[in-house]
Every structure is written in structure tokens, then in C-alpha cells.
Amino acid sequence: MVLKSLQPAYGGYTIARDEKVILIKGAIPGEVVEVAIEEKKKDYAIASVVNVIEPSEYRIEPRCSVFGVCGGCQLQFVSYEKQLMMKDEIILDSLKRLAGVEINLDAALSDLAWNYRHRAQFKVSRNGEAGLFRESSRDIVTFQSCPLMNHEINALLQKIKEGEVVQNLSEIHIAVGDSAIVFLKGREIDRALPEKYRAIGFAGVMLDDGTCAGEAYTHLDLNGMKYTVAPRTFFQAHWSLNRKVVDFVIQQLLPLAGKRILDFYAGAGNFSIPLAAHADEVVAVEENSFAVEDGLRNRELNSVKNCKFVKISAEKYKIKKKYDIFILDPPRPGLTSDMANRILENPADTVVYISCNPATLARDLKKLNDKYAIKSVRQIDFFPNTFHIETIAFLQIR
What we know:
CATH class of the largest domain: Alpha Beta
Shape: globular
Distance between the termini: 51 Å
Radius of gyration: 22 Å
CATH topology of the largest domain: Rossmann fold
Largest sheet: 8 strands, mixed
Number of strands: 23
Strand content: 25-35%
Strand order of the largest sheet: 7-22-23-21-20-17-18-19
Structural class: alpha/beta
CATH architecture of the largest domain: 3-Layer(aba) Sandwich
């Protein structure tokens, strides 16, 4: 079947139309492609490109030898300039269709497109091969190096492959700052394994049961502040862009003297601790115990006195006083209805909403529309060469 790809869609697809909507894997908007139908649904079908008849000027050669097999990324065949354009188009479409909002996006925040990841989660097969999942499968794809990982992670992965140190493991979580640390997940792990990982270059090794050999965390520079994370704490893998984003948020919110900030889904204080240097008070709400432990350490390392961490889910936290600014960085499902209502009932003057899902962002902005006007929206490309889209919106009380 020959089709013309019309527009980008979330998930790494483009949209074409025949008798019904067809979602195409492997096409760029404007291309004429031959496709094979892989799956038929009631209202649409999913297809993949088998031949490019009229290629786009933005089509490039993928860097990775297992691209299209590995499920880790989807857009390596698209120039980076076009990737940003496609993601902006998806954000705009989501806002228009789901929230009835038509606006102009501000310029995307972006940085490195390759070798940017400081955090990796590799899977281990039953026969001891470390890699990433095949697309739509639990099979493991192996490779020499991943062009999205920073060079140190790729070098450590090679040592893991050569060292025969994956016995009884199911996952290997690596975090790299000024040193490399690792969390090993599995059953009946050999007690000698942590020392083997230290021997190949890891400063710290943590196991499923919480035991740790060597350093329990690694250090990252957060625009002159000290930021530490344990291997089981989430942090933005694209660290160079994260530093830009944190500085951008601060600059957009200044002046902060006399201001109170409530940071929901705060993690280890990525926004809270830098904002505390400028504001009167910051409350960081986070339910993950590992992240809170890291956040308290980060607060002490930077001698921050006006940032309080509260270990509780954002959904259960009760807003008991007036705040000037809310920071919202929810997971992919976005805000629960109760959470959105709580924000509407106890409004701050300004809301900064960082989203990892354009659809739930649009839904939530529609919910908040009664009290808040949109000041600006822009893409943050934390995950180049993948379909993942992050967005930052600034809202102002009406």
C-alpha cells in the first residue's frame, strides 16, 4: 500500500488516511511511502514503512546498528531540526483538540542530541545478555554501544559484558555523575558481585535488599550547587539540558524575595533547592523515600535552611496556607482530579507545570482554565531521537 504521510502523531508515528486513519512507523510528514499493515483496529490501523518512494529532505541515516529493532528510540532517521518541529506540532495539536487552546509555542529548550544520558536501565536476559527490550517485546537486544548514552555508561556496559557479572540479574541501573554507581536487581545475587562491579569501575553498588558497597550516591553539578542522587532515585537523564531548564525556570520567576513556593513531585530537590536560594520558603513534596533522603542530603550539602521536604504523595498533601508559586512535575498520567481541584481551591499566583505527556497536559490545562490563564508553553527536548515529549507551561492566576 502506498500512502502519503501527513502529520506527526505521539508515539513516533505519522498519520496517513486511506479508508481509515493509518498510523505509520518510520515515515516523516510529507513523504510518500510504501507500507505494510501490522495491526488493524476498529477505527485505525498501524503500519510500518517498507519502502520510501519520495523521501523527505529531513531524512538521515540512523547512527545505531540496531535502530528499528531496539525499542529504545524511534526518530534517529529524522534530522534533529525536524524532530523538534514534529514534537512542537504534536503539542499544538494536543492543546487544540483536547483543551480548545490555540497558542504560539515559545522556542524549544534543547541541548545535546547524542550521548546525553547520564542514567541507564539495562535489562538482562535469562541467558545473561545485557541490553534493551526489543520494540513491543520482552526480548533483549544487545549492542556494542548506545548513541544516546554518555561515553562513560557505554564504556561500563562493555566491561559488564566482558566481565561475566550478570548472573541472576534482571536489571542493571547505572547513574553517572562525578563517579558511576549502580543498582543491581535480581534474585539470589552472588554476595561477591558488588566487589566485581567495583573492580570494573563503579564507585558504589546497591542491591535489591538495600545493602550498599562503596559510595551510596554520585555527585552532579546543578549550576554551582551540589546535587547527589542514589542509583534508585529518579533524576533527569539529560543533565546538561536539565541545568538549562532549572536556570530558565528561576529566571522566569524572579524576583522571588518574599515568595513562598510549593514544589509537588519534587524528587531530590532539582527545582526546590536552587529556588530556595532566591525565595523565602520552599516546601518540597515527594513520596519516594530514596528521593527524599537524597533531597535532605542535598539541602545540607548546600547549607539551605529554608527548604522543607515532606515525604508524602502530592495527592495526599493538604495545602494549609497561601503559596505564591506551585511547581508541578507529575508522572505521565498527569494530575488526578482531586489534585487539580485542590490547586483550584487553594490557588497560587503562578503555576509552573512540567509535563511528560502532551495529552494529559492539555487535559489538565483545560481543568485549570477556570482560575489560570496560560502565559507561555514550550517544548523541553529531554529525550532527543525518541518519541518522548516534555513541555513546560507557565500559568498566571486570572
